[in-house]
Design brief:
InterPro entries: CopC/D, Cu-R_CopD_dom
Largest sheet: none
Membrane topology: Multi-pass membrane protein
Number of helices: 12
Function: Involved in copper resistance.
Protein name: Copper resistance protein D
Distance between the termini: 24 Å
Strand content: under 5%
Keywords: Cell inner membrane, Cell membrane, Copper, Membrane, Transmembrane, Transmembrane helix
């Protein structure tokens, strides 16, 4: 890959990570109203930072795409004509939708607003950001696949945003409330994992044109296979947390606490690699179908 393509991949990965953490932060905040007040402050701050970072990555992507169209130079990145071409393309549509969605995230977290207003604004932000993902890439123009992608990304965002607060909560499990938050996430996982498998598996088969062999005999399929392998590892870690480590922590086993935190850290690392591979897939290759 040339330097400009690498830059686009990294910027896209940064946008994906930031936007999903912003979406997931809102979803996690709504699903866990009983979080300790100190944790709420940290979560709201990190969600707002993620939204701001997502906006920066979006604008950087706009510039990099214009530079790429102009042959790969910074002069082209600020060319009004090239910027206009990008703005009128599918990427421009993604930029506008995601930008609005990310801008309203801090409003949804503002404690001075009525709860109903915060929830309504937060729901609007989540829908706009997830919709933005479906406007660019392989699912554009396919309503059913776009809905599957939005479901898949929404669930992944919730899981990703949960890792940091759960890691901190796992470090203070001396209180029954902290253990209950870990158990609560495990109960969410009973629904989250099957839906992730359904949405992700359906999308993978569609991208492969309904031919599983394409996962091995095409360049796109081989890279997708690496991503799916990482996802399976992530799901196995989640299952280990749900059925063994969290119950062991609840029973007061001291060694389980360290193992749980290590497992959560590995989950975060796997998610980072998955996002990076997704950015490579979207930037450099096309599906079989």
């Amino acid at each position: 890959m040339d330097p400009w393509t690498i830059g686009r991949v990294l910027a896209l990965a940064g946008f994906y990570a930031s936007a999903l953490l912003a979406v997931g932060g809102l979803l996690f905040r709504a699903a866990f109203p009983g979080l300790p007040s100190r944790e709420v402050v940290v979560l709201d701050r990190s969600t707002s930072i993620a939204a701001g970072s997502g906006i920066v990555m979006l604008l950087l992507l706009w510039l990099l795409q214009a530079a790429y169209l102009g042959g790969g130079n910074w002069e082209s990145a600020f060319n009004p004509v090239l910027l206009g071409i990008v703005g009128e393309s599918a990427q421009g549509e993604r930029l506008r939708l995601a930008l609005i969605g990310l801008v309203v995230v801090p409003v949804a977290l503002w404690q001075g607003a009525p709860r109903g207003v915060r929830y309504a604004v937060g729901a609007l932000g989540v829908v706009l950001i997830l919709l933005a993902f479906s406007r660019v890439g392989h699912t554009r123009g396919s309503p059913w696949q776009s809905m599957l992608l939005m479901l898949h990304l929404g669930l992944a965002a919730f899981w990703a945003a949960a890792l940091s607060p759960l890691y901190r909560v796992a470090g203070s499990t001396s209180s029954g409330a902290s253990v209950e938050q870990l158990l609560r996430f495990g109960r969410f996982g009973l629904l989250l994992v099957p839906l992730l498998l359904f949405a992700g598996g359906s999308l993978a088969m569609w991208l492969m044109g309904g031919r599983p062999g394409a996962l091995l005999d095409t360049a796109y399929g081989q890279l997708l296979s690496v991503k799916l392998t990482l996802v399976m590892g992530l799901l196995l870690l989640g299952a280990a947390n749900r059925w063994w480590l969290v119950p062991a922590v609840a029973r007061g086993k001291p060694e389980a606490l360290l193992r749980l935190r290590c497992s959560i850290a590995v989950e975060a690392s796997l998610m980072t690699m998955i996002v990076l591979i997704a950015a490579v897939l979207l930037t450099t290759s096309s599906p079989v179908r």
